[in-house]
Write a structure and sequence with these properties.
By secondary structure, this protein is of the alpha+beta class. The protein is built from 5 helices and 6 strands. α2 runs antiparallel to α5.
């Protein structure tokens, strides 16, 4: 239901009370539609949250039972997992995405890289310079694009100082969190895997 004050007046977007008789039938109809569908969306969100928790708990129990069965401590709870049925016609995946940041050593690596660029100022590839400088640009929130920084490692640069900077970058990585993502797939008649969409935009 619409937000109302103690006198039954509708509260508009500016926070002002509006007597019901001044709220148009169109506004009332739209309000009822949005409220109803929003409630349905919230209910679905809760059901998906419960489902996600059950999947992760069930997989964790299965892996624990597996370790017990083979009498090993293999840390099967770490990393990504993929489980399929006996006929390999359906499968599920649990993918763990880790969220990382860089500590104060990133600035040290950047200073070494700056020295490298100055050293290469003559006869060096301007494209490589652009890639390096772009990797350390910050967004409006002051954050560095972590993928671009880590992508510097892929550059085929044979230089002792550059290699030292790359080692420092990797030493500066700090894992600040992780999140598990679920994917369920079915094999079609042609043997191709089709993902079951659990994202409302993909259904």
């Amino acid at each position: 239901m619409a937000i109302k004050d103690d006198d039954g007046r509708w509260i508009d977007a500016a926070g002002q009370p509006v007597p019901p008789k001044y709220v148009s039938p169109v506004d009332k109809k739209r309000d009822a539609l949005v409220e109803r569908l929003h409630k349905t969306a919230m209910d679905l969100n809760k059901r998906l949250s419960v489902f996600r928790r059950k999947v992760l708990d069930d997989v964790e129990k299965y892996l624990s039972d597996l370790e017990t069965h083979y009498d090993v401590e293999a840390r099967t709870k770490e990393g990504n997992k993929m489980l399929s049925n006996f006929s390999n016609s359906i499968r599920m995946e649990v993918r763990i995405n880790k969220f990382i940041e860089f500590d104060e050593r990133l600035a040290l690596a950047k200073s070494i890289i700056d020295d490298c660029i100055r050293k290469w100022s003559k006869g060096s590839d301007d494209k490589i310079k652009a890639l390096v400088m772009d990797a350390f640009k910050v967004d409006k929130k002051g954050n560095i694009d972590r993928d671009r920084v880590l992508g510097l490692k892929k550059l085929n640069i044979k230089d002792k100082d550059w290699a030292k900077a790359m080692d420092i970058i990797y030493d500066s990585i700090v894992v600040v969190g992780s999140r598990a993502y679920l994917r369920f797939s079915t094999k079609d008649e042609n043997g191709r895997w089709e993902t079951i969409p659990l994202d409302i935009a993909a259904c």
